[in-house]
Amino acid sequence: MYSTVEVVQVFLSRLAAQDAPGIARLCAPTVEWEAPDPNGARWMLGPRTRREVESQFLILFATFDLEQLSVRQVIVDGGDAAVVGWARWRVRATEEPVDVRFSAVLSVHLGEIEQYWQMPDTLAVAVATGAARAEG
Predict the structure, then answer these.
(1) In whole angstroms, what is the distance from residue 27 CA to residue 60 CA?
(2) Are 34 and 113 in contact (CB under 8 A)?
(3) Which run of H or of E encompasses 13?
(4) Rounded to an integer, what distance in angstroms lies between the CA atom of residue 34 and that of residue 130?
């Protein structure tokens, strides 16, 4: 069974490898989920199954190529971990680069992610994908 720190390390390595099935295998059968859809236009809330988690990351990786992932800080308190970082993605459809600051909170119980909250810069993502327009 993984510790909270180990779950975060494995999660980040699977994210960097764009391994959606591997991320889903880290999750409990049901995960309390709060994260935006891949284009950043709306939030998806509520419980997700492992299959739905895998699908969410498959859509993300079909929309974007991850070019760089930088973690600034990981804070762990028992079963909870907060990750603060930055990622450079490239929109597959347009080749548009997008830099996204993010924080994510993972709650781990018995070595599985039971709660996942992701808070990225949704405006940067929505503008890069064309879901929103930035006024200059």
Answers:
(1) 17
(2) no
(3) helix 4-16
(4) 22
CA gap 4, 74 in Å, rounded: 11
- DSSP string of 21-79? HHHHHTEEEEEEEEEE-TTSSSEEEEEEEHHHHHHHHHHHHHHEEEEEEEEEEEEEETT
Q: Which residues pair with 64 in a beta bridge?
A: 91
CA–CA distance, 31 with 89 (Å, rounded to integer): 25
pLDDT digits (tens, 9 = 90+) for 12-45: 999 999 999 999 999 999 999 998 777 665 677 8
pTM for the complete prediction? Answer: 0.88
**Integer Cα distance of 110 and 127 in angstroms:** 39
- State how far the Cα of 128 lies from the Cα of 100, in Å rounded to an integer: 10
d(CA 84, CA 32) in angstroms, rounded, equals 20
